[in-house]
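Re-run with default settings, no changes from the original entry. Doing this only to confirm the output is reproducible before filing.
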Amino acid sequence: MLGKIISNNSKTIVFENNYIGYVINIIRSEMFEIGKVKKVFLYKHLFLNNKNKIVEELYGFNTYEEKEFFIQLLHMTGIGVKTAMAICVLDIQLMKKLIINNDTEGLINLGISDKNANIICSEYKVSKKEIKEQSMPLLSDLISALKNLGYNKAEIEYATKTVSFNQNDLSLLISTAIKNISSKYGQ
């Protein structure tokens, strides 16, 4: 849906389309600047509240890929909208790499609970294209090494986005990641 961002807080935006305002739950408020016209990918969630009334909530995503990942999470056993939204805050490409490699430990290192990491790895439906694009066995070793060295989640996410996995040398990957983190975060 194309419209204008009227207001923005950390969890919701008011989005105007054809003079109608919609309150939309979001994951990254910095992606929705007040006054800007923007395309938002919507998901409508319907559920029964405690008074047996049907309630409608809208969830908005910056990309179609985010929306599809969110929907796939919702179809997993025991994962509801709040958990799915919390997971979607993480880097989706990194998540897919970990899921494809069945790396529950990597998911746990990113802050996902042990139970949800196991559910995601066992129930996520991976396409052949994703397997070809995302499969990188050194990723989980790099994440574990950076975590053991004391780097936080944001630094590890940044490092995994900036290193080239074309090389097969873990020590070279770690040193490159540390250099990238240091240059970005000034350590």
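The chain has a mean pLDDT of 87. The two ends are 42 Å apart (CA to CA).
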